[in-house]
Amino acid sequence: MDFWGFHPDAVSGGGGPVVDPNEKTRRFLEASGCFSDAEGNLVLYASEDSAFNSGHHQINNTLHYGSGSFTNGILILPVDTTKGRYLVFHLSYNCNSNFNACISYSLVQTALATDSTLSNVILPDYDPLFGITEKMAAVRAADGAWWIFYHGQEKEYIRIKINEESISPFAIQEIGTSHFDSGPLPYGDIGEMVFSPQGDKLMAVTPTGVVDVFDFDRCTGFLGKWDSLGTVASSIPGPDNYYGCSFSPDGSKVYASEVFPFSGYSKLWQWDLTAPDIRASKTLIFISPDSIEFGQHQLGPDGNIYISNLSYYNFQDTANYNLSVINDPNQAGLACNFSYASLYLEGRRTTYNLPNLPNYSLPPLVAQYADCGPPRRICPGDSVLVGYPDTTGGAVVFAWSGPGITSPGLAQQWVGPDSTAWYYLTVTDSAVGIPCGVTYDSVLVTVAATAELPMASLGMDTTVCAGDSVLLRGPAAPSGAGWLYAWSTGDSTVQIMAAAGGSYALTVTNPASSLHCYMDRDTIAIGVFGAQLPLPAQVAGADAVLCVGDSVLLGAAAVPGWDYLWSPASFLSSATVAMPVSRPAATLAYVLVVSDSASGGACGEVRDTVNITVEEQNLQNLENPQDVEFCVGECFLIGVPGVSGLAYAWSPTLGLSSPNLSLTKAQAAATTVYTLTVIDPALQSANCRERRFLVNAVADGCNRPSFIAVNGDGIAEVLDFGDHAGRVSLRVFDVAGRLVYGDEDYGNDWNAAGLAHGLYVYRVTVGGDCPSAFTGKVVVMR
Predict the structure, then answer these.
(1) Half-sphere exposure of 254 (CA within 13 A, CB side)
(2) Which has more pLDDT, 469 or 335?
(3) How far is CA 709 from CA 503, 702, 746, 757, in A?
(4) What confidence tens digit (pLDDT) does each residue in 173-188 have?
(5) 3-class state of residue 267 by DSSP
(6) What DSSP assignment string belongs to 467-500?
(7) Which tens digits make up the pLDDT trace of 543-600?
(8) Is the peptide bond before 261 cis (omega within 30 degrees of 0)?
(9) What does the pLDDT look like over 434-444, one tens digit per residue?
(10) CA-to-CA distance for 181 and 332, rounded, in angstroms?
(11) Mean pLDDT of 750-775
């Protein structure tokens, strides 16, 4: 631990304006205190008058202590050196109305622009009738706080405990020899009181011969085993007028020196606390020159004991400009190597006083105290190490409690609470025992609130159309949060317009903390979709008229880079191909949406409509033309009577008199299959506007009558040529060519009357719109 101790500038005193050091010296008779930093630089000091800074200026508002000189009259304890706060305790006669000696203290702050006293407090009297003696000493308590001891006018050791700026009520323990100041013993209340460097013993001396040494419990504050090493005088002057005292660095030896050398000489004595008979170990170390008094003792950081000298009757005496030194105070007897007036004070003078310095470096009593460390602040999901490593090699037991503690016996813990939580540590040093062997500490681990954490989410990378821009927006800060925005573009606004084809980064910072979660960063890449191949002008195809049951191929050939979607999807072979087949049951319009495949249509979309008209056929009930048989060269009628409003067409047309009439004349040279197409001009679809009939015109060889049997049996008795469209003319000739019969309007009734048995030739002519003629032979049989 750092040592704060004796500083030469403080020895010479100070106060008010800076004055000559020798002048300041005259203000220090007995009481002084000082405090230096770890490098020995003076921080502040106090005299019997007031408290002063390192520049020897009086600190504002400090009490003017005054009113008497006190042996251990000043004591300075650090409260918080990082803030420059110190407690300055002082003995005074100005504390109460009884004018008894009492204790007051000042809370001093030296770290401000102007050093100042924050408060002045007077401690209550331990007894309304009695003041205190000139003794005040401090020692580190077992828990690192401070015990301050002062003494009453009898056997009262009065103690208070100081923890930072908190001061406990006083407690009294009666033990040891009385320090009564009265009658023949007028100086029983003066003399030093000091703690051993180890803090385990207390020593007090008086000019009345008192040399008391006690064991001390730093945990409870109680004095224990008492060794009375002096012999109380019956009157003053007398022998053993002790004033200054000290412990050796190892605590094995004690020293006491005399004052008031009425015999002309002061003496320095040593006792060995390790000797079987401590009183008998008393050894005279040194006798002072004539009229030289030994003042207060002080154990230095180098292990030497320094003793002030005073020639009270000659301030120019060498003794007043030097300190005496015990160079080897751990050694017994004269081996302690005492050196009289050997440390020159560089022209400064001293009196009885040396600074009242407790052992600031004394560590706590237990091997290791409970210490969770400072409050911690973490990000959600993080963990933090609390506590400190075990420096005792297992001499203490650690016990942690709090959320997420899995190994409570470890000295340090990684903790990561889901929300702000307290963690508690108990450390037990069984070697010290209860209560000081058990120490406690706690630490608050604060988890940053979600609302305080910026989330720089710019979304997924995206691709946009050429020439487009994108609005990029950072998270909105909570009201009053003051988040900072830093874009890779140099912008510091919450949002920016970003052009296509680039990478953009955003860093959002909450300046409220340096935690990593108080800063978030995100990056987004903005790409550009490529150009598409051009589509046909009429991408959905041409309008069409269908008959019920017909199908049609829609659209045009597919173009790479485009997606196709037809609606409605009814009656289509597929709604997502470029050229689907449609077989609609009713008239409808198909809408084709063609969109850019890469952008999902964002960068290109074409719409086209194709109208499909569905017609119903009205030709189902037409009369069906009959097949015909004919004789070659014969003119005959084919077809059916026409229906108004319909059109007709025959094929082939060869031999037909009127190929566009439903009923026409035909004169075929051979068997022919005719097609009659019936057309409804009111319709457009081929399958609905037309109906075809096949008519077979069969040339059957015409087995015309070849004989007439005149026998009365009714069979073949006439020459019958069947029905013809026109008037029939018949002429019959014999083999000699003579006309034997003729009829210009033949009715199939000639029975060869009057003709002999034999062969005859006939000629038939058919008139009318379809004229024809043919010849043949007939046998008349009788």
Answers:
(1) 30
(2) 335
(3) 117, 20, 19, 10
(4) 999 999 887 666 678 8
(5) strand
(6) T-EEEEE-PPPPTT---EEEETTS--SSEEEEES
(7) 999 999 899 999 999 999 999 999 999 999 999 999 999 999 999 999 999 998 888 8
(8) no
(9) 888 888 999 99
(10) 33
(11) 85
d(CA 331, CA 1): 26
Task: Determine whether 502 is exposed, middle or buried from the number of CB atoms within 10 Å of its CB (0-12, 13-18, 19+).
Answer: middle
Burial zone of 394 (CB within 10 Å; 0-12 exposed, 13-18 middle, 19+ buried): exposed
Conformational region of residue 143, where left means phi above 0, alpha means psi within -120 to 50, and beta covers everything else: alpha
Q: Please give the torsion angle defined by the CA atoms of residues 494, 497, 503 and 505, in that order, rounded to the nearest 10 degrees.
A: -10
Q: What type of residue sits at position 389? A: P
Q: Which residues of 150-173 are buried (b: 16+ CB within 10 A; e: fewer)?
A: bbbbebbbbbbbbeeeebeebeee
- The residues with which 648 forms a beta bridge, in sequence order, are 678
Q: What is the mean pLDDT of the chain?
A: 87
The confidence score (pLDDT) of residue 65 equals 54
CA distance 612 to 688: 14
Indicate the burial class of 488 (C-beta count within 10 angstroms; 0-12, 13-18, 19 or more): middle
Higher-confidence residue: 551 or 620? 551
- Dump the DSSP string for 554-606: -S----TTEEEEEES-TTBS-SSSSS-EE--SS-EEEEEEEEETTTTTSS-EE
CB atoms within 10 A of CB 460: 7
Q: Which of 4-13, 67-76, 355-364, 597-606 has the highest mean pLDDT?
A: 355-364
CA 327 to chain centre: 63
How far apart CA 59 and CA 57 sit, in angstroms, is 6
Tokens linked to 66? 């005054």
pLDDT of 21 higher than 50: no
**The pLDDT of residue 234 is above 90:** no
Cβ 659 vs Cβ 667: under 8 Å: no
Q: What pLDDT sits at residue 237? A: 65
Of 655, 656, 630, 625, residue with least CA distance to 721 = 630
Structure tokens given for 537: 């002008």
Residue 209's region, left for phi above 0, alpha for psi from -120 to 50, else beta, is left
DSSP code at position 157: E
pLDDT for res 184:
67
CA distance 84 to 78: 8
Collapse the DSSP code of 95 into the 3-class scheme (helix H, G, I; strand E, B; otherwise coil) and give the result. coil
Taken in order 260, 261, 262, 264, is the CA torsion positive or negative?
negative
Question: Where do the DSSP E strands lie in 688-771?
Answer: 690-699, 707-709, 728-734, 739-743, 758-766
pLDDT of residue 297: 97
Cα separation of 400 and 405, whole Å? Answer: 7
Long-range contacts of 152-161 (CB under 8 A, 24+ apart): 152/126, 152/127, 152/179, 153/179, 153/180, 153/181, 153/188, 153/189, 154/130, 154/178, 154/179, 154/180, 155/179, 156/126, 156/127, 157/202, 157/223, 158/126, 158/132, 159/221, 160/123, 161/221
* Longest Cα–Cα distance in the chain: 219
Confirm whether pTM is higher than 0.70: no
How confident is the model at residue 187, as a pLDDT? 80
